[in-house]
Amino acid sequence: MNLKPNMIDQIRSVSLQSENEGGLARDALNLILERNWFKLFVPKALGGEMAALPDALKIFEYASWVDGSFGWLTTIGAGGGYFAAFMQPDTAKSVFSPPQAVIAGSGAPTGTAVRTEGGYIVNGKWSFCSGSEHATTFTANCIIESNNSDNPEIRAFAFSPEQVEIVHDWRAFGLKATDSHSMIVNNQFVADERTFSLTEQLAFLDEPLFSYPFLPFAQATFCAICIGISRHFLDEAKSLAERRQQAWQSTRAGRYEFIMGLIRQADNQLSSASRTFYETIDQSWNSHMDQQPFTPEEITEISKVCQRTSRTALACVQNLFPYMGISAIMEDEPINQIWRDLQTACQHSLLVPFEGE
Q1: CATH number for 324
Q2: Range of the domain at 218
């Protein structure tokens, strides 16, 4: 699973350049492809790894520790493999079998589809399509236009790249190298076999991942990203403190020891939260493998653990950031980039406990 140290150094050495250019360096993207990480959730019959959820989460955390955008794109790209079981088998084969196959898209139903012979005419615009510049297939949800406006049908559509216009509007202050742009589809025909619904599993019925509840699945993958980026920040904070030890001590006695104490405290807090997170996911996965159905209460608890863990990952960083010196506010400093990446990842609505927990 792990990359060689020189590979990690290479990714990190061009990280700031990558965010200035708005996309992941080609060498970094190739590392994901070479390790088949975009296909962690793709069935082996289609050239994938069909990884167990707990194992995949460790990879997402690790990739995010290497670099925030690198980890985000690994996770989002891999997550598209979940759709393989819900597409028509021949469609899934054509989408996922190519060695460089990866999906970008959106789950928001901000498009419309009108029924026509053999398929649909689709129009819409979808935001935040991470990996848009290297995707081989785009997926998005649409509202099916009909007379039943009170209970509209929503279906997902799989577009080829030539059917999609990319709008370069990803201007977030973090995760800048993720190509999370909007996409537009204008009067494109999509055949019936290129549509699907996550409530209708059509294949790979014996693979447990595809019957794991989708909401906690998604929340767990995002949470793993937050853990990895937070760990990277703590490592960088320790390295920065060691580099600045003499200068800090000359201007304020005890500053280095104080900051190192905060780093140790944050590391303990993150490790404890991470341990609870993985124990919760492991337990839910093992129960699922034993074919024990999820209760609504269990699904809610998994969601809460994911949210609490990501909040802890963010709090550990927030508590440390003010003590890292004036250089930490400069965007061309690695610690600033890591901080911005974590803020951005934790902003995802699936990780925000809106009930005030």
Answers
A1: 1.20.140.10
A2: 212-351
Q: For residue 119, count other CB atoms closer than 10 A to its CB.
A: 17
Return d(Cα 123, Cα 39) in angstroms, integer.
29
Contact status, residue 233 vs residue 335, Cβ threshold 8 Å: yes
pLDDT, tens digit, for every residue of 238-287?
A: 999 999 998 888 888 889 999 999 999 999 999 999 999 999 999 999 99
Asked if residue 218 and residue 300 are part of one domain, the reply reads yes
Q: Give the residue among 235, 181, 217 at the shortest CA–CA distance from 67.
A: 235
* pLDDT, tens digit, 9 for 90 and up, residues 42-92: 999 999 999 999 999 999 999 999 999 999 999 999 999 999 999 999 999
CB 276 within 8 A of CB 329: no
Q: What is the pTM of this model?
A: 0.96
Q: What DSSP string describes 159-218?
A: E-GGG-EEE-----SSSTTB--EEEEEEEEEEEGGGEE-TT---S-TT-GGGGS-HHHHH
Other CB atoms within 10 Å distance of the CB of residue 103: 24
**Number of structural domains in the chain:** 3
